């Protein structure tokens, strides 16, 4: 099936054309980061307005780049939630309107479901697997038994890992969003320079907590004169090492507890080079298979919706035109019969 996919849950307006839930024909992402950087975070009202401006040209560009016309599209997959309600509504209304006008089915897909299935656009991986969804709003571990079959194993008690990256970047005067900048600076710093806490690591549960590391960085920085470049690089490297260690250890614990040797790491923070390296090292030692989507599929994009979208439409689980946005939507509530 030739699917048009549309995503607008936060600050990226994205559209993609995906064939049979496996082949990406095009993937267009229009980011609003410059708009929100001025405010040091996403401003919901501005996000909605910019989605409105971008949605039609982005969809047209996705069709153009795929070399198809709207008449060729056989179904629409669109992010239904979770996210900013005003932002979600723009993509959802566009998707439903297109489907209605063309007389084709539409399905509302969970944003995190998109993230944790994105790798299937690039590689084969059998179910079940353990998924670490690590992004701006999530640090969640799931057991994934199939498309539409998710069990929450653990999550953060406070900040998401991406949020911690962004807050620490702001604290260091590195701008917003800061994950990628910290990643780059960390590569040139000493990860052992400062012994930041590894929260929750001693507890053998699957919960995370990142607000303590953020506070430790704040305390370390407070009262110091201007930080020189070496000091900033060392803080970035030491902070990143602490976050990475917690993410990796808890995910390995989840895999061990579930008796599963396949792990998927997804979401914007899965771009992090330190995280990728540490997982690769430990996976090698333990004969685990760890899969990361390529970076363009880690951050927000629409192509990632194609995997679940195709499956749901193929199996008769289209949404009605009354399908509404769900700003809060636990992934476990996505359930497919059979
Ligand atoms: P969610 O997916 O939970 O709804 P979101 O869609 O806003 O949240 P994503 O776009 O998936 O989040 O990811 C964005 C986050 O990823 C930001 O917090 C950003 O700082 C972080 N990030 C991006 N690249 C890197 C990197 N190289 N290292 C660490 N963090 C990164
Ligand atoms: Mg974003
Ligand atoms: Fe996301």
Give the structure's gist in a few sentences.
With 338 residues, the protein is an alpha/beta fold.
Order of helices and strands: EEEHHEHEHEEEHHHHEHEHH
Number of helices: 11
Beta strand % = 15-25%
CATH-level-2 architecture of the largest domain: 2-Layer Sandwich
List the helices and strands and how they pair.
Blueprint: E1 2-7, E2 12-19, E3 23-31, H1 33-37, H2 44-66, E4 75-81, H3 85-102, E5 106-110, H4 111-117, E6 129-134, E7 139-146, E8 149-155, H5 161-171, H6 179-186, H7 211-221, H8 229-258, E9 262-266, H9 273-286, E10 289-291, H10 295-298, H11 305-314
Parallel strand pairs: 1-4, 4-5, 6-9, 9-10
Antiparallel strand pairs: 1-2, 2-3, 6-7, 7-8
The structure holds adenosine-5'-triphosphate, magnesium ion and fe (iii) ion (FE).
Magnesium ion is lined by residues 10-12, 136, 300.
Explain what you see.
The protein has 338 residues and is α/β, with parallel strands linked by helices. The chain folds into 2 domains: 2-116 and 297-333, ATPase, nucleotide binding domain (Nucleotidyltransferase, domain 5), CATH 3.30.420; 126-292, ATPase, nucleotide binding domain (Nucleotidyltransferase, domain 5), CATH 3.30.420.40. It is 42% helix and 19% strand. The chain has 11 helices and 10 strands. A 5-stranded mixed beta sheet has the order 3-2-1-4-5, with helices on both faces. The protein has a 5-stranded mixed beta sheet with strand order 8-7-6-9-10, with helices on both faces. Strand 1 and strand 2 (12-19) form a beta hairpin. It is globular and about 60 Å long. 51% of the residues are buried. Bound molecules: adenosine-5'-triphosphate, magnesium ion and fe (iii) ion.
